[in-house]
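Cross-check.
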Amino acid sequence: MNQQFTPHNNKDISQIRVTTGRRGAESPLQPDHYHLYYEIFYLFSGRCRYLLKDTFYSLEKGDFVLIAPGDLHHSLYYPDTPCEIAALYFKEGFLLPQLFAYQGEEHMPPRHSLRGSVPSLYQEEFEALLFRMLAESRKGDKHSPSFMTCFLNELLLLLCRHSVISEEEPDLVNARDADIMSAAKYIYRNFQKPLTLQEAADAAGLSVTYFSRKFKLLTGMGFKEYLNYIRLKHAAAALLDTSKSITDIALEYGFGSSGYFKDLFKKEYGISPREYRKNRG
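Predicted model, tokenized:
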């Protein structure tokens, strides 16, 4: 597995996709991003850090992260520690209905993101399925979509049966990252307030200048960019789930004015809040 890993960055997909490859500190910095489908990020070898919403996780061989649609995430790599990874992308419509039925702790995939691990005894079986999916995706004949759907459901059923899911607060990746993780949590929990860069820096216990530089380096986003992403995500959900006016939603989620909200929303989603509500509601 020596190809360079390239993340799938489209906001939406029409078929199941899988990719494998190598990533490391020398790879181009992957900015925080989200998409409208599920992703499973799996580590064949090496170790890395993973930012999921407002939390950093430490991943090693056999660990995976399941990212739900709309959740902010990206991977970070250590110097001199190359990683062999796989990424699997799919939508809920490709899955057996019973996979979304509550079966105690076997509910998979959940409609929220989580970190998990495939025990070493089952890693070979899990990885073989990933490679079968990769090979099938390269065939691309008329039967491939059906095979890909079968393999995807088999893989998720394997995770239902054997994976260890961890949804507890993770250990800090290292003490140097604790300040930025604290600030990310603070922003995520207070995004509806008129937050300032100074408040975020204070939450991290850092000067504004040093905080801005370190936050961008570690998360791939600036403070304002991260804050607006969080606000837009919740405002988009409110457009579909409530009958509140666009102005009320803009003010409730911290945008200050409906005009500013509309401009940011159209830049991010490509359509106005009104069109978004009409087309998706």
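The chain has two domains: 17-166, 175-280. The longest strand covers residues 38-45. Passed to J.P. for a second look.
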